[in-house]
Structure formats: structure tokens, C-alpha cells
Amino acid sequence: MTERQKYTRNFSIIAHIDHGKSTLADRLLEKTRAVSSRDMEEQVLDNMDLERERGITIKARAVNVHYDAKDGHTYSFNLIDTPGHVDFNYEVSRSLNACEGALLVVDATQGIEAQTLANAYLAVDANLEIVPVINKIDLPSADIEQVRGEIEEVIGIPSENCPAVSAKTGLNIEQVLEHIVTDIPAPGGDEDAPLKCLIFDSYYDSYLGVVVYVRVFDGKVRSGDRIHLMHKNTEFEVVDVGTMAPFGLSKTDELTAGQVGYITASIKDVGETRVGDTITLADNPTASPLPGFKHAQPMVFSGIYPSDGAKYGDLRDALEKLQLNDAALTYDPETSAALGFGFRCGFLGLLHMEIIEERLEREFNLDLITTAPSVIYELTMRDGSVKHIDNPSNYPSPDEIEVAAEPVVRASIITPTEYVGGIMDLCQDRRGTSIDMKYIDAHRVELHYELPLNEIIYDFFDALKSRSKGYASLDYEISEYRPSQLVKLDILLNGDIVDALSFIVHADKAYARARKICEKLKDNIPRQLFEIPVQAAIGGKIIARETVKALRKDVLAKCYGGDITRKKKLLEKQKEGKKKMRQLGSVEVSPEAFMAVLKLDDN
Amino acid sequence: MVKKKQTADELRGLGLYLHIPFCLSKCAYCDFYSLPCGQLDAREQKSDMRRYTDSLMLHMEDYSRPCEEYIVETAFIGGGTPTCMPTPLLLDIIDSAYDNFQIAEDAEFTIEANPATVDRRMLKNLRKNGVNRISFGLQSANDDELRGLSRAHNFEDFLESFDDARRAGFDNINIDVMYGIPNQTKTSLRATLDCVIALDPEHISFYGLKIEDGTPFARRRDTLVLPDEDTECDMYLESIEYLEKMGYHHYEISNFARDGMECRHNLKYWNCEEYLGLGPAAHSYFGGKRFSFKRDIKAYMEALEDTDSGVDLLDDSYEVSQSDRSGEYIMLRLRLCDGLDVNEYEKRFSLDFEKQYGKYLKLYVENDFMRHDGASYSFTPKGMYVSNYILSAMLDFDSGIDEKKTIGTDM
């Protein structure tokens, strides 16, 4: 082990959402005097406005700081921040694999929650040394001993002496830093062996091209080296290497085994640098790539269309720009009779989808219509071919289908005991099968259910939260494809099928779903001069119907003694309202209609 | 006060509106600008009203010069309740109008009156001094319904006042009737109309109740028992038929008159002709500009009493853009049952109405919302009742109106 390796610590911070991961990161940076508190812009590592608003981290970031420890040595700390949401598990796992240890932050007032566990398991899978950190001890309802107990029992990590801190006030933060030195092992690796680097993140910079974040396991890399990306099977010449200082990239001569840093190599496309890939030298390659690589796999799809057809080009350009920094986002042109020209986009999950949609609207100023999210169905046709359908409008007719299969997930839900009944009902209602149930402690239960993905991606999370007053938490992953009785539900407005509103649903739920959708649609269709029939059909047969009554009154009876301006304002206001509407055939519909039909849980 | 008098031919026509912002008490549905003064003692009332009258007269003086090119063809004293002011003050105002403006010999001069506040002497005085038209706010012939509206009078009071008006020599009287009010039914509405028709007024205004933000009705919305939308719609359509049958010709969305007795002052609004409105909250269309004065009596009086006070009377003022002018014209002319004549429109704006709005017109005419008669397009009663919906689809205003100043919503 080299001196440098001896005094290096590579670690991540993992936690359930809102347990204080980012605040702790801020404090660690402050304490290592990498960033003075005056310069500190709240939560430096989260540098997207959107992230800040939602209080979540989306992109992984890494930072290199120096800590003067009590033992007299100066340590190089590499803090790798990880996305905190279930949609990004793969990215989290790769970031963890770049580390030797992880700080597991647990909120002293909440205890262990679903993602505490999920992330802990990921850390265990990555063979990390886990240092529990109990946070928010400044709050009156903090129960440190209780949480210590939970950590030991549920995760099985000794936590008698683990630091209890308040990231908000800064209390006991030095203890965390010391524990990092003493509890987390130094990185290993052979400097003289062939280069073996893990890509754990990357981003596109207009001057530098793609900046690749790497953890060097073996060997060395420096400017001028010809590198080989093993899974992508491409080669590039290194322009620069360096480390990530808190306020920017810091060039160095080389990166060696045990270090975390960046490589630039005039790479034009983040798609080239897939998270989890292994970088080695072209002329002295390592024997085998690092394990655990997975191709990006979108799970949830939706159609995104510009409200104004003329903005199609702008939408395309915007998606291109977003994809520069988001290799997980996919998009392909598609057309809809109802909505015109748009794109079928693939996302890692619902949160990913919401984030992309918000960015398109906010950063690129686009007015969008988005269809209901859909999963990929696997259809074995009668002629033997296998089709994957991500767009309900393309769903083939039933007589051509031999077997239809849908993706199923394994979900773990943690909830206080008093809500178990309501949640079990919810899961059952969503075609879930119970796997098991165990008590975490006297007050909380962990439920495992198998659920079809298409039952989860709509409003399952909201329904879960509302049935548990916000206390329940959810984590899930795809387990397999399962054959299922699926039907395609068509929606007709004024007798015309609106392809963009079509739905794939389980046969048993079709009638109930159809009725609810018609009701919801009715609420989102403003009254117009003529009566509007809203119908749901399966294979041409109408199974549900609502009617939007014709508008009879909309008049300014009195002219307000010459106040013409007021009348103009009222008409203008109405016009603004109308502009937001979307014309579907002969019917005006509010753009929220597409998502509103998904809010189906009435509790 | 001596001005160069031009011949009538060279002068442009003008409507003059004078606002009296006082009422005995506020009716539950009203959002016009006025102060309830019934609670004040007689002396306070008198002094406030005197002060206001003086201010209004100063305001008229201010506009005397700008109006030299105009002849006032219609004058309208509205409110509030103009007749809750003592007669001498009203006469001062009328005199001031004659002093400061050129008023046509055959001008229509209206005053709004509330049954509880007029008496024969006042009416005679008004008639003698130039007022030749009265507009009575009856609203309903049913005393329970009147109580429901918090009106300060009952039907008996009204009958007396109406009789007094006739005896005072008023041969041009309007009666306001409301429909869609709390606890009203189609039957009780018909009864009200019959009572009104029996009195043989020259003009009837027929308004649907609208709940305005900030009024007592708005606050009590959940407790009001109002006719449902279909009933209200029927009330409107059936009453139009009935009034027509009884000789009251439907000439504007909410207005009916015996032949030749249409309200000339209001017609100025709907024909996009010029008018000047003085007093707080009064509106004007004058010199190509639309403007209004602040809804604040105190500020109004202060500004006029002390020209150095720096208080700005104007609330909103803008020049009507070229493109808005044709839109306004359409919006206002279509309020009239005669509708819009495409040749007149072309003459005025050099635009082809049918080409501009062809696809809408076809749809509406085919579905009986509009009718096409030779060169004119007009709303049918059914179309009038959804005219906002239709107009907001057809028209676009770019007047750069400050959204924050929008008051309430239409329905």
C-alpha cells in the first residue's frame, strides 16, 4: 500500500430521503475547511435548482477534500454523493462500488425507513464498511438509543459507538470525520498493475466534452494515455486527469490506484460513458472488466408532445440537450392522430419522468402534453414472434396475441402498524400478492409484495402515503415478466377514439377503471356549446359513458355603465383559459386530463 | 363661462354620465361604487353630500373646455342612488351640467331613482329642470324577494313612486327587473313581469343576478337558494318571448322598449360612440381613449378641492389600439338584437367580417346561436345567453390590460 493510499478514504453517504444526507455533506465540507460557511451555498453538492426545490439529489457528484485528523496526518477524503431515489438504484450501486465505506445516515426521529434499508443492502452488497450516523439529534422527538437498537437489530451493524450528530447545528461533526479515518479502510489496489477504473458518473461540458468520474482500482492514468472503455468497446485519448475540488476540477499529473477523480478525453457524448463501465489502457489492458455492469434500461414510457405543433423542433432539440447529460433518457419520434407529432420517451421511473418533463417545461420553455406513463408489455404473437409494446396505441388486436406478459416488481413497504390493513387492501386492489410481513419493532411492519409494475407507476405512491398519513415508505425492483389477462381500453370523445388516451389494463379491472376514467375526463372537459359524450370501449364495445352537458349560460348581462374595459378583460381571461385547452378532434380538453385520469385512488 | 358656440352640425355627439356614490343601504348583490349613508345622521349626510356635489361640479368645469367641440345628446345621472341626495344638490348638479356643456335641446336626460327615496316634489323639480327620463330600480314585485335582495323598499312604495313620476310629467320611464334571484320561481317572475307591464312603462331592463366578488351575496353564496342554471336560462328565454308578445321589443341582451323608446344613452355604449363619465369609478370613452376615475370618494374630493394636492384621479387610461377597435365594435354591436352590419363594419375598419370569422359564423348560424339576415349577423336569444363563450373564441384583445386589475369572474 502506498503512502497516498494509506491516507485516502473513499466513502459515500446513504440515507432515506430527508434524513439529512445533503446537510451532513455540507457540514463535512465546511469542517474540512474546503468551503467556508460564508461561501457555503446551501448544499453545494446539489447543483441543480430543480433538485434543490424537491430536496433530492439526482446526479451523483464527487468531491475531494483534505482533513487534518487527530492522529496528526492529513487525509484525502473522496465524498461521493448518491441519488436518493429508487429509480436510480443502479447509479447508487456503482457509486458505492467506487468506495470502501459508507456513512449510513438515520434520522433520530424517524428511525429506519424503506430506503435506509434498501441503501444499506446495496452498501453491504458492495462490501462496504458501514458507519451509522444518527442525525437530527437536536429535535425534541429524537430517540438516539431507540435508533441505535434498530440499526443493530434490523441491519445488523454494531452501533453502540456510532456518532450521533446534528448536521443542522454542526454538533458532533468532528466525530464523524474521525470515524471515517478510523472505521473506513484505506483503499487497496496495485499501482503497477494494468489500469482498471470504474466509471461511476459523467457529465457533458461544452468546453471539455464529457467529464468522466472514475475510481481507479489498479494502475495509473495520465494525459496522453490511450484508454479503452471495455463494455462499450471504444477508445479515446486522455486529455486531462485530475480531482474534483469543491468549486471545480483540479488538474493533476496522474491518477493512481485508490484515488477518485476525473478524466477528459474529448468524448462528445455521455452515451459513450456508461455508468459501471471499466476503463483500461488500450495497449496494456486489464484481464477482465469490473463486475456489475448493466445497460441503461428504461422502465416507464410516455408520449411527449408539444402543445403547439410548431414547436416540435424545439422539443426535439431540448430532448437532445437533456440527453447530453442523461444517458438513461431515451426518445424516439412517434405520431398520434390526436396529438400530432411527438416523441415516445423512456425513463428509469416515474420520478425520472417527472423531472425530465419539468426541465423541458422550465428550462426550455415548452408547453407540453404528456400521455399517461406506460410500461413495456411482452407479447408472444400467434405467429411465434415476440413483440415489445411501449405505447398502448400500438397494442395489437387480441386475436393476434398468444400470450401477453407484463413486468412485475418486488416491493417492500415499511409502515406503522396501524396502517397495515389499509395498505394491504391497497396492494390487493392493485393485484398484489403478499410475499411476507415482518415486524421491525413494536410499531412498524415491513411488507413484501409482488405487484404488477403498471399498478405501481400511476398513483400507488400517493395512495400509499395518504393511507398511512405520509409515514409509509416504498422501495421496489423489477423481478420478472408474467403472463396476464390484459385488454386495451380505448377512450372516445364525441364518438372519436383519442389514441393518446388509450390504456392497457388487466381484464378484471377494466370496467371499474373505465368508469372512473370517464368520470375523471368529464371533470377535465370544460362545458362547450354542444353536449359531449365521453365513452370507454374495449374492442369497439362501449363499456362506460359519461356526458358533459352543453353550456347554456355564459353571458355578461349588464354592461356596467360604460365599463367596456372590464368586459374585454373578462373575455381575455376566458381566452387565456381556452388557450390552455387542447383540441382533441372536436372537443376541448384540459391538458391535465391525461394525468388526471390516473389519480384513481379515492381514499 | 361664455364659449364660442358652434352650429350643431359641426359638433360631435357625446354622452354624459354623472355618478352619485351614495345609497341608503347596500343591496346584497351590488358591487357598484357607493357609500351607504343611511346610518349617518342628517347633518353628516348633508355635509358629505354637499362636499361631493361641489367636487363633481368642479370636475365638470375641468371638462368644459375639452368638450367645446361636443354636444351632449344624452345625459345620465346614475349611482348608487342619485335620489337619496337632497333635491337642491341634484339641481345644482343639473345646472352645472347645462353651464359647462352644450346640451342638445332634445337630449335624453335620465336619472336613476329608488322608490324609497323619491317624492312628487322632487320629481316635479327634476322634470322642470331638464330631466326627462327616469330609471326605477324595482327588481321584483314580490316583497319577499325584495327582502332577499336587501332592497330598501317594497312594492307598494314603488307603485306610489311610479305614480308620482307620471304625475310629475315623466313620459319616459324605465323599470329594472331581475331574474335568477333567491327564492324566485318561473311563476313569481311571470307575476312580476305582469305587474310591471300593467304599469305600461316605456322601457324594461331585465338583468340576471350575478354574484360579484366582495358582495354580501358572495360571502353567503352557500346559503342562497337560487334557481338552477337550466331554470334561469328558461326564465331568460321565455321572458323574452313574453315581453315581445306584450309589445316590448327586445333590442339588447337585457333591454326591452316600446318602439322608439330605446335608451339612447346606453345605445352610445353599444354603438361605440363617445361618452364622458365623471365621478369616482365612472368610465369614459373619449378622444380614442378609455379611462376611468378611482373608486375613492375621499381621494376624489381632495383632488378636486386642491389642485396642488398631487392626488391622481385617474385609475386606468389607455388608447384603444387599432386591432382592439374592431374587436370592441363586434363585442358591443352583437349585444344589440339588430346585430352587426358587414357593410358598416367594412366602411369603418376596412375589414371583411365574413372572411375574418367565417368558420365561426357558419357553425353558430347552423346551430341557431346566430342569425344571418341579409348583411347583418346577430345573436339569437340562445346565442346571447352564451355570447361570452362565443366572443372569447372569436376575439382577441391586445390592449395590454394589467391582469391584476381584473375584477371578479364572469360566472
What does this structure look like?
The complex is a heterodimer of chains A (603) and B (411). Chain A has 603 residues and is of the alpha+beta class. Chain A is 25% helix and 34% strand. Chain A contains 15 helices and 32 strands. In chain A, the strands form seven sheets. An eight-stranded antiparallel β-sheet of chain A has the order 10-9-15-6-7-14-11-12. In chain A, strand 20 and strand 21 form a beta hairpin. The radius of gyration of chain A is 27 Å and the shape is globular. Mean pLDDT of chain A is 86; it is low at 50-60. Chain B is α/β, with parallel strands linked by helices and 411 residues long. Chain B folds into two domains: 8-270, Aldolase class I (TIM Barrel, Alpha-Beta Barrel), CATH 3.20.20.70; 322-407, Arc Repressor Mutant, subunit A. Chain B is 39% helix and 22% strand. Chain B is built from 15 helices and 17 strands. In chain B, strands 9-10-8-7-6-5-4-1-11 form a nine-stranded mixed β-sheet, with helices on both faces. Chain B has a three-stranded antiparallel β-sheet with strand order 12-13-14, with no helix packed on it. In chain B, strand 16 and strand 17 form a beta hairpin. In chain B, helix 1 (42-64) runs parallel beside helix 2, helix 1 (42-64) packs across helix 10 and helix 6 (186-198) runs parallel beside helix 8 (229-245). Residues 400-411 of chain B have low confidence and may be disordered. Chain A binds chain B through residues 528-530, 551-575, 578, and chain B through 17, 32, 78, 207-208, 210, 229-230, 232-233, 253-254, 266, 269-270, 275, 277, 282-285, 290, 292, 316, 324, 327-328, 331-332, 335, 367, 369, 384-393, 395-397, 399, 401, 403, 405-407, 409-411.
